Amino acid sequence: MSIITNRHDVLFLFDVVNGNPNGDPDAGNLPRIDPTTNKGLVSDVCLKRKIRNFVIEFPSNTENIGNSEESNRFNILVKQGNIINNELDTAIKQSTERLPKDKNKDKDKAEAAMKWLCREFYDIRTFGGVLSTGEDVLKGSAYGQVRGPVQFTFGQSVHAITPLEISVTRCAVTKPEDEKKERTMGNKHIVPYALYVGKVFISPAFAEKTGFTEEDLNVFFEALSHMFDQDQSAARPEMNVRGIFDFEHVGTQADKNAEQNKREARLGCCHAYKLFDGVKIDLSEDAKKKGKTYPESFGDYVIKSEWSDTTLPKGVKLHLRHEGKTIPANDRK
What is the pTM of this model? Predict the structure, then answer.
């Protein structure tokens, strides 16, 4: 598979029903919230965790993975129970064993280790990471920090949220001395309903440095589409991806000037905020008539895209990945 060459700017929508999409450990695990607007927040780290979990549970088809040492793998570095420095030590050993004798400097070893880690671990190749945590050649090296091509923003709710604290009881006790108690008390925090908006930026410039391929991109969008489908828990019983608007920059030159077209596709043909502003999120007419200020379900919203094959900025195509449709790039002169 080839390294991606086109920039992607992605707007995605997801909602939560009676759940805690991202608890804040500094606030007793209350749902994260912006104190100035009372809008809910979901951190980029939380969203990347969902992608990692999906790739762990549903790895890419092994038939698409080459057998050569240079082929990309789909292991995950940042996962429960993993000791990162052990993996870094393995990377140093595996990569330096194959170095030519005339490339035995620390810089050469650090570069080889970084490239090995990018090939081996999907999350490093995708999101980047800090690799300079051990006492080895990566510490203090320019190769000790990798910036990945895929970067998330925080997700933010469209409207203000009102988190609820729900008391719960348990009929079993934890300690022998509590045996005579009929039940113990606990609590959980939920958001009754909220629709969140997140953004993703995918850069071919950084993809070249980590080896992020078209196959990796396909895996990412599959994970983004299904990241909540296999992640249900007592805290998050119902979360759904409601829309993925993937703006792909393809260039305006077509076959007239291949080099200029490649540059445009790599750089981008329109500012991301202008593309995102064309996706309108508003309360439905029925919700407005009822005077709702706190939407109760996805049905209280209307999502409209202003973009068509005649209104899209030139050089940009829109993949409606939640619908399996693509609006082709505007080819008007």
Answer: 0.93
